[in-house]
Design brief:
- This protein is mainly α.
- It contains 8 helices and no strands.
- α1 crosses α7 and α4 (about 110-125) packs across α6 (about 175-190).
- The longest helix has 27 residues, at about 10-35.
- The relative contact order is 0.19.
C-alpha cells in the first residue's frame, strides 16, 4: 500500500477537524439516547450550543480548508454521496415504519458541504472582501428566514424555507450555511497567505498530535459510520 504523503499538509487544520469530529461523537451520545432510546435526560447548555452552532463551525472550517484540496469538485461529489447515504438511510427507516418524520435528514450537513465544494470554483474568482461581505449577508438573512419565515410549499426546505409543521432530525439548509462556507473561503487568504503551518515547531509526527490529525483526515467516513452505528445501538440495542 502506498504511504500517504503528508509533507504538504497543514497539521493544525487536520488537528482541529479531529477535535471537532470527536466533539460531534460525544455530543451525539445524549442526543441519540434521548431521541431513539427514550432517555429522560436534559441537555446541558454547552451541548445545546454545539448542536445549534457546531454544524456552522464545520461548514466554515470546510470553506477555510477547501483551497488546500487538490480537486474540490471530486471532493464535493464524495461528500454529497455521503450525505445521500444518510438521507436514504433515514428515509428507509421512516418508510419501513420504524420512525416518524422526525427522523428524516432534510438536507443534512454533508449534502450542504458537498454543494458548497462544487460551488467553490466560482467563489474563488471573487475578491476576498466581496466573499466575506456576501458571507455575512447570507448568514444574517439566512438565520432570519429560518427562524421567522414559514411557507406553504414543502419543497423549499433545502433553501432554508420551512413549512409550519416542518420537522427533521438534521437540517442544514443553504441559507444561512452557504454564508458560513463563504466566510471560511474569504478568511483563509488572510490567515494562510502561503501553504505553510503557522506552528512549524510542531509537526504531525508529534505524539498525540498525530492521533488527532489522523482522525481529522477521515472525518467524512467517521461521520457517516457513527450516525449509522449510533442509530442501531440506541434504537435497537438499548
Amino acid at each position: 500500500m502506498k504511504k500517504q504523503d503528508l509533507s504538504n499538509r497543514i497539521w493544525e487544520l487536520d488537528f482541529i477537524r479531529g477535535i471537532a469530529i470527536i466533539c460531534v461523537l460525544l455530543v451525539h451520545i445524549p442526543v441519540f439516547n434521548i431521541k431513539f432510546a427514550g432517555a429522560d435526560i436534559s441537555l446541558s447548555p454547552f451541548i445545546s450550543f454545539v448542536i445549534k452552532y457546531g454544524g456552522a463551525f464545520f461548514i466554515l472550517l470546510s470553506g477555510f480548508c477547501i483551497s488546500f484540496s487538490k480537486d474540490s469538485f471530486k471532493r464535493g461529489i464524495a461528500v454529497i454521496i455521503g450525505g445521500f447515504i444518510l438521507t436514504i438511510a433515514s428515509g428507509t427507516v421512516y418508510e419501513l415504519g420504524y420512525e416518524t418524520e422526525e427522523v428524516l435528514m432534510q438536507w443534512n450537513i454533508l449534502e450542504m458541504i458537498g454543494l458548497c465544494m462544487l460551488l467553490y470554483p466560482y467563489m474563488k474568482k471573487l475578491p476576498n472582501v466581496v466573499t466575506l461581505v456576501w458571507g455575512v449577508i447570507i448568514i444574517i438573512a439566512g438565520y432570519y428566514i429560518t427562524e421567522n419565515v414559514t411557507v406553504t410549499n414543502p419543497n423549499l426546505y433545502a433553501l432554508g424555507f420551512k413549512t409550519a409543521n416542518f420537522v427533521a432530525f438534521e437540517w442544514r439548509p443553504i441559507l444561512p450555511n452557504l454564508g458560513w462556507f463563504m466566510l471560511g473561503v474569504g478568511l483563509r487568504p488572510f490567515i494562510y497567505k502561503e501553504r505553510k503551518s503557522l506552528i512549524p515547531q510542531i509537526t504531525e509526527a508529534t505524539p498525540v498530535v498525530n492521533v488527532f490529525c489522523a482522525i481529522g483526515r477521515n472525518t467524512l467516513i467517521i461521520y457517516i459510520v457513527h450516525m449509522l452505528v449510533y442509530y442501531v445501538i440506541f434504537r435497537f440495542l438499548i
